[in-house]
Amino acid sequence: MTRALILGLVNLAILAVAGAVLAQQPQTQQTLCTRERDKLLAHLSQTYQEAPTSMGLVGNGSVLEVMTSDTGSWTLTITRPDGLMCIMVSGTGWETFPAPPKPMGTVL
Description:
Elements: H1 3-23, E1 32-34, H2 37-48, E2 51-57, E3 63-68, E4 74-79, E5 85-91
Antiparallel strand pairs: 1-5, 2-3, 3-4, 4-5
């Protein structure tokens, strides 16, 4: 498989998990949204030592980002095209897998 295909599958898996988790959330849970992305990222950095580690585009033009820390905490956000950034879900126990080796003779 090509690296692009693997990364696409990883992004698809993240979106599928996010969708499954969000579908199970109680209706009373509120989503934190802001237009001040820098302040939200600073808060996640200072409070949880989280930094952006991956991102992808959603079909409607939104940007999905995952922030993680060395301690395993993580936060998934979506930023809409109009600039509204929302924390969708967060948790603990995040693990990052090493990238698979590139096939010999393949230019990626």
